[in-house]
Design a protein that fits this description.
heterodimer; A: mainly alpha; MetI-like fold; globular; B: alpha+beta; Rossmann fold; OB fold (Dihydrolipoamide Acetyltransferase, E2P); six-stranded mixed β-sheet; five-stranded antiparallel β-sheet; 10 helices; 20 strands; 25% helix; elongated; Sugar_ABC_transporter (chain A)
């Protein structure tokens, strides 16, 4: 009996902490979003926060910005990540040299840099008085640095998208690379003998191989950017702001009455994330993407 | 005619600093394989036969020499444009494609429409005995079936040359024989040119029109199975073909004598003087009766039976003749009454003795 339950008991402190902090926090948020807030004397349950939220145009604008930024950053980082991984793979196949290692390390570099620092790098590079605009002005491609497009703290969210694309592309390639290394070295020989050039090999063999890992990596990036806070806070504009920032603005607005609405935003975020997870799971099952690989 | 001609093809691998032994090199190979011929490269592992195959496929670039098919020089043509096919040691099927798609892969690369491609793939699957397996995935097939699919994939695109790199070595013996028969039957039916690499003598003898024996990066001898078996051009070839009873000696004044002078007999005028090896095939050694008249065209050897083993269908006797142990095959009838320790007189016709060099 002791032997059987020992591992569970040993795990209990860790699991307990996670349950308390994560699910406890989520549950507390859910209660407060439903108007249960004993600190201000509210002990009833109501959906006012949600109806208010769904009626406000600020919420819908914020949601559309969030979806746009998350979709574009995951799309760009997925394409870039796959390109990096495939290039590294082909490089590795054609020549085993020290250079390959160097390239590997270089592409992994963004992984080691915190998001906040990444955000600052994008600010320094792309703001109107940043490096890029100065370089463009020095080369005479633009007359004044003010002519450089507004890419940071812009209403479209390009600054945030650039940061995430740069930061998450290595993550996507890191997810794909181990799958690529499962591709038999001799498959390249086989495909060449049967008439496949480099591009046909990538289309017929490499892409189908990486598709499952690729979908999952892109989804993780999407969900992460969908609910991330610091980069949108640093690189976004005050209005419209991304949902996590919008929630923060409501929460810290100074009045406790806005808090249920702020927490309702978080619950909506969590619900959408779970929903997206289910959709991806359903499609990956349905496409049978893993067929034959195991 | 589109014969495959290999002209002085050479490859030297660079020395890696980690390995102390010298880097492998393929010495110049000169070889013509006729259209429709089944040609085997036979040799021990590491002798360069796979390197030669990859050179022909274009997967490895030669340092010197040329490859011609018919009157076209294809040395610089990339593998994807050679219209060859290759079957490897492992089936190397693509796991995410169905059997049909795997078989039709080469056709797809040739931009043949899906309908025609699948029809041809299905037809070829019938030929390799896998009718109805088209919609399965490779992981649902046994090793033998996978290799049949690999064979179908190779044949369906009607290749100019079919290259095979020890395709049956990963299969168990029963299956290997079955695949050998299948390949032999299919080759008779389609008559495509095959360059087959193996270290299995039996396989090469069973399948090939001609065989090339390789060792240490050199092509030692090319010929029909019977010719290279009966007349190996060197001791190395004889050894690799599993020939027993190879005895070192000298030819002088029209006679061969073993180093210890125990075995001696006259040789033809065409045999050059100098160091030589006699090769006595076990099946050519017979038991002679004492009262038989001794013929001048035969060599008689007196010895003692040291060992008598039953092999499937016949007996193998090890006979000690002076300082030499000779192996001899006897039928059940001949072996009747033989016993270990018994004296025996062996006889072999002089014509059946083969002399070869180092």
């Amino acid at each position: 009996m002791w032997q059987k339950s020992k591992p569970y008991l040993l795990l209990l402190p860790a699991i307990g902490t996670i349950v308390l902090l994560f699910f406890g926090g989520l549950f507390d948020g859910l209660l407060k979003s439903l108007g249960y807030f004993p600190a201000i004397g509210e002990t009833g349950f109501e959906l006012t926060a949600y109806t208010e939220l769904f009626r406000s145009s600020a919420f819908w604008e914020s949601l559309s910005l969030t979806v746009r930024v998350a979709a574009l950053s995951s799309l760009i980082s997925a394409v870039m990540g796959a390109a990096i991984a495939v290039s590294l793979f082909m490089l590795n196949e054609s020549a085993k040299s020290r250079n390959t290692q160097l390239w590997h390390r270089m592409f992994q570099l963004p992984l080691t840099i915190p998001h906040l620092v990444g955000g600052y790098i994008i600010v320094l590079l792309f703001m109107q008085s940043g490096f890029m605009s100065k370089i463009f002005a020095n080369f005479g491609w633009i007359g004044e640095i003010q002519e450089f497009p507004v890419l940071v703290n812009d209403p479209f969210g390009w600054g945030i998208i650039l940061t995430y694309a740069w930061k998450e592309a290595p993550f996507v390639s890191l997810m794909i690379y181990p799958v690529l290394s499962r591709i038999h070295r001799s498959w390249r020989d086989v495909s060449r003998v049967y008439g496949a050039g480099n591009w046909s090999f990538i289309r017929e063999i490499v892409l189908p191989a990486i598709l499952p890992a690729w979908t999952i990596a892109a989804f993780i990036v999407f969900v992460f950017t969908f609910s991330a806070f610091e980069v949108p806070f640093l690189l976004g504009v005050t209005y419209p702001s991304m949902l996590p920032v919008y929630s923060y603005q409501l929460y810290t607005s100074g009045t406790l009455a806005d808090r249920p609405e702020a927490l309702a935003v978080n619950i909506v975020l969590a619900a959408l994330t779970i929903l997206l997870g289910l959709v991806v799971y359903y499609f990956s099952k349905r496409w049978n993407v893993m067929k034959g690989w195991d | 005619m589109s014969d495959l001609r290999i002209i002085n093809l050479e490859k030297q691998y660079s020395q890696t600093p980690k390995k102390k032994n010298p880097a492998f090199s393929l010495k110049p190979v000169d070889l013509t394989i006729n259209e429709g011929e089944f040609f085997s490269l036979l040799g021990p592992s590491g002798c360069g036969k796979t390197t030669l195959l990859k050179l022909v496929a274009g997967l490895v670039q030669p340092d010197a020499g040329e490859i011609w098919i018919g009157d076209a020089n294809i040395t610089a043509v990339p593998p994807e444009a050679r219209r060859f096919a290759m079957v490897f040691q492992q089936s190397l099927l693509f796991p995410h494609m169905t059997v049909e798609d795997n078989v039709g892969f080469g056709l797809k690369m040739q931009k043949i429409g899906k309908k025609q491609r699948l029809a041809q793939a299905r037809d070829m699957l019938v030929h390799v005995g896998l009718d109805g397996f088209g919609s399965r995935f490779p992981d649902q097939l046994s090793g033998g079936q996978q290799q049949r699919v690999a064979l179908a994939r190779a044949l369906v695109s009607n290749p100019r040359v079919l290259l095979m790199d020890e395709p049956f070595s990963a299969l168990d013996p029963g299956l290997r024989e079955e695949m050998r028969d299948l390949l032999s039957r299919i080759h008779k039916e389609f008559r495509f040119t095959v360059l087959f690499v193996t270290h299995d003598r039996e396989e090469a003898f069973h399948l090939s029109d001609r065989i090339g024996v390789m060792s240490e990066g050199r092509l030692l001898q090319v010929g029909k199975a019977k010719d290279i078996y009966e007349q190996p051009e060197s001791k190395k070839v004889a050894r690799f073909l599993g020939l027993k009873n190879i005895i070192e000696g000298n030819v002088a004044n029209g006679r061969f004598a073993s180093m210890d002078q125990a075995i001696e007999f006259p040789v033809g005028e065409s045999i050059k003087s100098g160091a030589s090896y006699m090769v006595l095939r076990p099946e050519m050694l017979k038991a002679a009766h004492r009262h038989d008249l001794q013929s001048p065209d035969s060599l008689y050897l007196r010895g003692t039976i040291q060992q008598l083993r039953f092999n499937h269908g016949f007996y193998t006797a090890t006979v000690q003749v002076e300082g030499h142990q000779l192996e001899s095959h006897f039928s059940n009838q001949e072996a009747e009454g033989m016993a270990v320790g018994q004296e025996i007189l062996l006889v072999v016709e002089l014509d059946a003795i083969h002399l070869t060099s180092e």
